[in-house]
Amino acid sequence: MNVNDSEKMRHILENKGFVYGTEEKDADIIIINSCAVREKPQDKIFSYAGRMSREKIIIVAGCVAQSEKEKILKRNPNIDYIVGTHQYYYIDEIVEEIVSRRRSGVKAGFTRKWQESVPDIASRTSLVSGYISIMEGCNNFCSYCIVPFTRGREKHRPFDKIMEEARYLKSKGYKEIILLGQNVNNWEDLEKNMKFPALLDEMANEIDVKWIRFITSYPGYYDDDLIRIMATHPKIARNIHFPAQSGSTRILKKMNRIYSRSQYLDIIKKFKKNVPGISFSSDFIVGYPGETDYDFKLTLSLLEQVEYENIFSFIYSPRKHTKAFKMDDNIKMEVKKDRLYKVQELQESIQLKNNRACIGHTLEVLVTGRNPRKKDEMIGRTESYRVVNFPSKTPVGDFTFVKIDHVGPHSLRGSEVIP
Question: I need a labelling partner for 291 at 20 to 30 A (CA). Which of 5, 120, 182, 365 fits?
Fold first, then answer.
């Protein structure tokens, strides 16, 4: 989502005559688009901005800008302007104000209205995967999560605008479309009486791309209609990012997640029964306040039961404004680190086992780039988001087939099969 926000800002500035620079040292204006989900990335932003030359115009945008506001300017005099998550759309006016008046400022107010912005192709990061934002914000207020305080409440993009951008990306040759939202499966268009499964159905019927993906899904919003739609349309990729956060119902309740372990597993079972070949990725937090050894073992057992394609795992990071920030965080750091290690070790073993099952099989692969370390090799992704390395001259953006002959826990390697 931050990539997509950056694309929007670049698009707006380029339309005003600014030129995007490929080298930081040559830039006159540097925009740091920030994430506040964890403390460590936030601290890196302040350190990074502090190393910048005072001769450059420095803008901090995004979630850290939204949550910290004026504190950033006080902490780092090198920074010229703070731009919140709902103020990207005024980035051209902000830059012109800085250039003409050279003064600091903050724009970080929320709006409940959808703000329409579609980056053109020149402003997009990828010529293969097209991001489409369909909703922003979150109403859930999970106890650990700062997103409602940095992105605001949910607002949903109109159906017609979503389809208009999808048609545009198809016309420009994009091979996959990725629908974005903090709770993407909670999207709705009240005027058209449409919910997320209906949007997927319409898009899969009309937009002729190979894969349609969506991130991030909230388990509490799943229903049988979505499963039915996915089973109906092969072009909806058989891979879902499905954040569990914990395998313990007790901890999920403390996190203010509105589902239990058993409900989560029931959804997984329904998908696997009705959508053959589907795989899942997930997010996990370890060391959450009050997490016992037993709670943690339940998380490990969830990994074993689901056998995720991959996961993102983190030590709990206290965030100001959240309910968990006031909880007694009495778990020692060495225990938290040990738990994180065990989660990642188990997941790595699961991935290696599942990847070994691919040896000898020929997989369809979307070529996404050239291997920076090996000039004769390309990098691609399978439908389930496995990374594949293989010698090839097939252009980026094309599909090909690769017979797998070697695997590791994080990627596959093979030989291209030319029909």
Answer: 182
- pLDDT band for position 301 (50/70/90)? very high
Distance between CA atoms of residues 174 and 398, nearest Å: 10
CA distance 312 to 282: 6
Count of Cβ atoms closer than 10 Å to residue 51 Cβ: 7
**Rounded alpha-carbon distances, angstroms, from residue 46 to 24, 41, 176, 404:** 17, 9, 35, 44
Beta pairing, strands 29-34 & 57-62: parallel
Query: Which tokens go with 179?
Result: 């629908």
Question: Which parts of 106-223 fold into alpha helices (H)?
Answer: 147-151, 159-171, 196-206
d(CA 176, CA 397): 9
Read off the amino acid at residue 256.
Answer: N
Query: Are 210 and 129 spatial neighbours (Cβ–Cβ below 8 Å)?
Result: no
pLDDT digits (tens, 9 = 90+) for 241-259: 999 999 999 999 999 999 9
Tally of CB atoms within 10 A around 70: 12
Neighbours of 395 (CB within 10 A): 9
pLDDT tens, position by position, 158-169: 999 999 999 999
* Rounded-to-integer distance, Cα 100 and Cα 92, Å: 12
Asked whether 146 and 68 are in contact (CB, 8 A), the reply is no
CA distance 29 to 27: 5
Identify the burial level of 83 via C-beta atoms within 10 angstroms of its C-beta, where 0-12 means exposed, 13-18 middle and 19 or more buried: buried
- Is pTM beyond 0.85? Reply is yes
With 80 as the cut, is the pLDDT of residue 101 above it?
no
Strand 412-417 and strand 399-407: the pairing is: antiparallel
What is the rounded distance in angstroms from the CA atom of residue 218 to the CA atom of residue 264?
10
Which domains does the chain carry?
A: 2-107 (3.40.50.12160), 121-356 (3.80.30.20), 362-417 (2.40.50.140)
Give the other-Cβ count within 10 Å of 327's Cβ. 16
Instruction: Name the CA dihedral angle for 282, 284, 130, 63, rounded to a multiple of 10 degrees.
Output: 160
Going through 63-164 in order, the beta strands assigned E by DSSP cover: 81-83, 105-107, 129-133, 135-136, 155-156
* Residue with token string 């369809």: 364
Q: If you count them, how many residues does the chain have? A: 419
Q: Is the peptide bond before 232 cis (omega within 30 degrees of 0)?
A: no
Pairing of strands 155-156, 135-136: antiparallel
pLDDT on residue 12: 94
